[in-house]
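As described in the Methods, two query proteins were run sequentially through the folding procedure within a single session, without resetting any intermediate state between them. The first query and its resulting structure tokens are shown here.
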Amino acid sequence: MQVKVAESAPTAHRARPDEHRGRPPRASAPRWRSRKVQGLAYATPTAVFVAVFFLLPLLLVGQMSLSDWPLLTGDRGVNAPENYTDITDAPLFWPAVRFTLLYTGVVTVVLLGLALLLALLVQESRPGAGFFRTVYFLPSALGLASASLLFWGLYSPATGPLGDILDGLGLVDEEVSFLGTPTAALLSTVFLIVWKFAGFYMLILLVGLQRIPHEVYEAARMDGASRAQIFRSITLPLLRPSLALTLLLCVTGSLLAFDQFFILTKGGPDNSTVTVVQLIYREAFQRLDLGTAAALSIIVLAVLLLLNALQFRGLRRADES
């Protein structure tokens, strides 16, 4: 009798969990490690640059601010907190703080207001808009020290043409001293900064304006909104990030003002235009005291960090509301 052996059914293929879920198999550990090594290799030069040119100098300035550190003899030991008390008791400290705050307020209001006006004027694509954008931005390509030297020549009563132009137009009947009084020196420097940076801030605000959808403006016009209502209810709220950036840059740059006053006024007349950074320069390179200069630098850094944190917090609250 012949026995027939039944054929065994083929073994069913067991799908792996990754195939059931439609996901590719996991990458092998060496590949993941190689990507990690590549990322570290890309980040290392930047980390070294920041450590060498920012963190180490910051630590050195902190050490100087707590030490008796003349420029020519070096570290003489810790004297904390003598440097901080000496700099705040200096006769020029509080006048320099007041003048720096006054200058920052005037420059911020005038510069950002003019930059916003210029951005609105060249916002639309009309004949000549590209030409005026270029003209407004051109002064930003000039270095601040070069621009200060240029305006020093223009303001000079001996060689500058501005006095003769005003006299020829009949606007003045005597020699004009653009830098001879505290008010004139402040306004002349503000005019230089506005001429130099208005185009740069205009460009930042122009980018923000061009990111606002045209459909929003069209819908507002169809609803009968006026230009003032559109500007107040649409343009300003949607332009808030660009305005915050320009405000941050303008306030920080104004509080750190040095080149323009060092070249134009040398802190005069009668030390009326001495800024905080000029005071740091005087302490370090005229009084040869790096300790008090470092202490003032730490104070300025702390104030800047506080102001920037408050600005970012205000911007975040405005976005959440």
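Immediately afterward, the second query was submitted; its sequence and tokens are:
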Amino acid sequence: METYTLRTAGADLVYDVRRPSPTDDGRPPLLMIGQPMDAAGFAALAARFPERTVVTYDPRGLGRSVREDGRVDHTPEIQAEDVHAVVEALGGGPVEMFASSGGAVTALAVVARYPDDVTTLVAHEPPLITLTPDGPAAVRARARVLEAYEKRGWGAGMAAFVAMTSWEGEFTEAFFAQPDADPAAFGMPAGDDGSREDPLLSDRSWAISSYRPDAEAITAAATRVVIAAGEESEGVQTGRTSVATAGLLDLAVTTFPSHHGGFLDGEFGYPGKPDEFGHRLREVLDGAS
């Protein structure tokens, strides 16, 4: 693996390139992106593609990528520019892309703005909460996570986030009538270190979950777009946002193994099924539905 730093006007973007030996069969690079997950989260999945050139990167302000634009928010438009810059640095594209969570939102913005950059996009569980039928209630639930985080710190915020993302079905008054989630019930610390900069729990990434993709531009692009969702995500928030995103683009949802982090091994806590996930991703990239 080789690591590079791409200096842009607003950030120093760090990305990694894993090249096979011997060289691959002429397929374009496979770019894997997330948000707020950085490159480290894709190590297990990248290892399942030893025959491919796999590229991972840290979004600006996350991991090793240092931002110099004076901002702390994370927006799909800015991140799309960064991904385009990485594709240009790789030789101008096109690439195949696997994008998960907030990275899937960024990837949809890339296809809308730079359709020649991506041949196939597998967008895994984009958390576009305002697209769901209960969008206003989902926004209210998101605000509840922020409130817990601001009042009581990381453990309380993360417990509220887990309670929100594991709720099945629409956010009814029954959801809001629940008591505050207990961090201890999820094995999380109850203490407060005073930090309020977490990109997942603060409002710094709200522009991502509130984003509305340019459906007209995406459907007009030559890029093959696949909206993917884990089989364990059916009925919970990111499964429902995947269905809503697919509906916006007049697509069906493609089922993948496991859950929102289905490509992760046990290194990051709740493990997925990286072997099965990698096999399914290879099938889909090769044209399977």
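The longest helix spans residues 135-152. We note this only descriptively and draw no conclusion about the first query from it.
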